[in-house]
Design a protein that fits this description.
The chain has helices spanning about 5-20, 25-35, 40-55, 60-70, 75-85, 90-105, 110-120, 125-135, 140-155, 160-175, 180-190, 195-205, 210-225, 230-240, 250-265, 270-275. The protein has about 280 residues and is an all-alpha fold. The longest helix has 18 residues, at about 5-20. The N and C termini lie far apart (about 100 Å).
Amino acid sequence: MRKSPIFTAAAVCLISHVAVAADAPDKALKYHAVLLKRPHNAALFDRFYGAWLDEKSVEEMGDFLKARAEKNGGAEWGVLATWQLRQGAEDDALASLAKGISANPADMALPMERAKVLLRRLDFDKARADLATVAAGSDEALALEAGKLAGKSWLREGNVEKAVAAWDAVLAAHPADEDLLEDLVETAAGEGETAQALVYLDKLIGLGADPYKKTLRMLRRGDLLAQGAKTDDAVKAYAATLAQTGADSWLEREVLAQIDKLFRKQDRLDDLSAELEK
């Protein structure tokens, strides 16, 4: 009886996959087994990657990971997607992530990874859909990151109001989280939203009980005002910071240096002298 072409192709593919798996380096296989238990651990993936390349090519690694994913599914799709992203194959990675999400919908790291890829591709609506899924999930750390990324995505589209709403929603759920506030300060500042960064920084200054951290944050406030071309306000902020520093401390020297730079930049040397005499 003549075999059908479809059956023959499937058999060849299966034999090829078995051969690839059987020929995998032992050390790499050990890392791969651990990696499947912690598929989003970048350090583990690096060790697997390095162990494989000690004996085999990157193309053979791809064949191995594809064969494993097609045979076993589950976490294998996420590992394959990581490899594909390393190779710059974003379309293939998105397809693998979709299969991984379908196989393991409780793993919030997968839609988070897909959202990051979609954000790079400026596909904001689809990215925010994934971020909303992550934000509603049980992984608190990823939910926080999702909220911050959602805000950043709105900024990239020029919608400051929705960006702030997204960030404020995250903050409302974690009002005393100083690390979150610090992230929001730097995220807003990095996106050029100095005014909003100052709003979050003022909240942060009001929260902190540590006098040293509070002084550093007051110094940062002066820096942000200076970046926003609000020189006089920046000088006042630096002066308030100076009052909190110890004599001859590095903080005192830093504040004085910032005041000096501000006035010299505008060629206001008389004002500089007057400020230093206070």
